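[Discussion] Sanity-checking designs against the backbone

I'm trying to build intuition for which residues belong where. Below is a structure token string of 106 positions. I'd appreciate it if someone posts a full sequence so I can compare it with mine line by line.
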């Protein structure tokens, strides 16, 4: 990301589709951490229109807004995740719901 940051205009977002590396971890090595975010599509992306958008600790709110608008413009339904988590938010939801179901069935 540091190479990308030095070769792009200052208004360009630096997005990763990583679901295993939080944006804040990427920002540590980046020259412009305020421009870094995660834009992770749900799979299969040609069938599921959802995109998880997550900023890091230093991500500028305008960068998030730009990413959300971009994904809407290309026909996706972005989900702004306000807390960094590894993996998809649906996995966290399944784990929590599954745990509650198991407790309720006992």
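Best answer:
Here's mine. Compare freely.
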């Amino acid at each position: 990301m540091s190479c990308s940051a030095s070769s792009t205009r200052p208004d360009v977002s630096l997005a990763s589709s990583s679901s295993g590396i939080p944006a804040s971890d990427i920002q540590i090595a980046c020259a412009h951490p305020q421009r870094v975010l995660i834009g992770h599509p749900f799979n299969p992306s040609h069938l599921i229109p959802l995109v998880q958008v997550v900023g890091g600790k230093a991500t500028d709110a305008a960068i998030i807004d730009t990413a959300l608008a971009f994904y809407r413009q290309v026909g996706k339904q972005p989900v702004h995740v306000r807390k960094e988590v590894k993996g998809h938010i649906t996995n966290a939801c399944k784990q929590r719901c599954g745990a509650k179901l198991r407790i309720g069935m006992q």
